[in-house]
Specification:
Elements (H helix, E strand, L loop, with lengths): L8 H13 L5 H19 L20 H17 L8 H26 L9 H11 L7 H23 L9 H8 L5 H18 L3 H25 L32 H21 L4 H4 L1 H7 L2 H19 L6 H5 L4 H18 L4 H13 L15
Length: about 400
Amino acid sequence: MAAPAGLTGRTALRSRWERLNDAPRVTGIDLARGLAIVGMLTAHLVTFPDLVWNDPSTYLAVVDGRSSILFATLAGVSMGLVTGGDRPPAIPAMMTAWWRLAVRAGVLWVLGILLIATGVPVFVILPAYAVLFLLAIPFTALSARTLFVVAGVIALVMPWVQVWLDALPVWSTPVGEEVSLALGWHYPFPVWIAFVLAGLGLARAGIRDIRVQVAAVAAGVGLAALGYGLHIVSGTAPSPAQPPLESSLDQPSLAGAWTALPHSSGVLEAVGSGGFALAVVGACLLVCRTALVWLALPLRATGAMPLTAYTAQILVWAVWAAVALGDTRALLEFRALSPFLPITLGVIVGCTAWALLVGRGPLEWATDRIARLVVRDRAHHGAPDRLGR
């Protein structure tokens, strides 16, 4: 994480600059992560009305649900890059990558539980990430075409199963809430694995290829139009005030499986918001082929250390709320303090300064270090480790 021996001053800064802007980094993925972080901060810290498609004044609500799905898709892209991109390595190197992913999943789960313990009133996504990483490891052996097909089948089928899973009696038991938090059930893996596999498929297809980038935008826009269009036309979506998944075990509401409402994990959300995520990733990759890549540097630096940025906003929130309100759980009262701009600017400026002056994000460095200490190289050759670089 510190500058290599012999590098000081201008030389060290140039080294950090090259690391942030040159291969093997994929700058467009950093930009997409940066946008996802800003979207997440908006969803957490700003009170906005429900999205109404014919009312532009409600469009800020586009961040609700879609930022987390974009994160899940980008997690799949990262898994694809860490396992060789469009050229997966030989079995020994691949096995090393698999075990390191498993270790990182464990680290993410522990960190997620610690962040939940702060009492900050958000559904911490890290436990869900940990579960999704573990589930996705076997799929890293598949081709891009197969991954897209599997992701599509899951997106169309599992929302119907999810309705029944959400109605299981375990959730109403004394330990139901703890089990839900430990699994990250607000981002249920039976459906959300589709987003991870779609991102993994994108990496396997060759994410640096302009044809793949254009295809991601085109396919994403088409899927988003289909999902959201059917949501509007069908008129069967439940009201946000009446959660679609509240149902009994005997009579679960299948309406919950046919909706694009945020965090519903419905078919139309999986199709529409999954397409939205693909389009954003493709657009960011294309933007970073232009001079706009330099204007986007602060967002890219933030996206280069997403775990650090995510953790920082939770910790700052917890301390601020505890000091100002005496209660970390008071959501509306904390939003009334107008924390969005100071926290967002603080995260972006802090990440940019760290990336240029120090290098890799501290939590990204620590997680990678733990994984490398636990799992030694099985081969001297293979794809460079790009997860969270």
